[in-house]
Design goal:
This protein is mostly helical. It has 7 helices and no strands. α3 packs across α7 and α6 packs across α7. The longest helix has 22 residues. The termini are far apart.
Length: 132
């Protein structure tokens, strides 16, 4: 019985510690399967659709040019990033797709607002056009 209590306490403490550290994660960690994921869309096709989706879902926070200066940006605590920067553009399409899809901190999840993966891929393609 004592062993069972000890294991139960260790399990609870481990779970609590794990939960606490993932909540306080200071870096946006993208699972490896997304880092290496290939973009199934043609970046040259449907640019107008990607831009329209960006304007509808992203521009209010990230701004017209992707500088993180949209009208809602002042209400966001985290760094909105600069989509034109080398650092941002160095990410893989899969990383951008993951971040656009699942969000983190102030960035909302978009899998329900845009359930079609292709729409989020088209936004990734459009964000690539914002490079300096």
């Amino acid at each position: 019985m004592k062993t069972l209590k000890t294991l139960l306490i260790l399990g609870i403490v481990s779970f609590t510690f794990y939960s606490f550290t993932t909540v306080l994660q200071d870096k946006w960690v993208v699972p490896e399967k997304y880092v290496t994921m290939k973009n199934p869309t043609d970046p040259a096709a449907d640019k107008a659709i990607g831009k329209a989706l960006y304007s509808k879902h992203c521009k209010s926070c990230h701004g017209k040019e992707g500088y993180g200066d949209g009208p809602k940006a002042k209400d966001v605590e985290g760094d909105l990033g600069d989509f034109s920067s080398e650092e941002y553009q160095a990410q893989t399409d899969g990383e951008l797709f993951y971040k656009t899809s699942f969000g983190w901190e102030d960035m909302p999840e978009y899998t329900k607002k845009m359930p079609d993966d292709e729409d989020r891929w088209l936004i990734v393609n459009y964000m690539r056009t914002l490079a300096e």
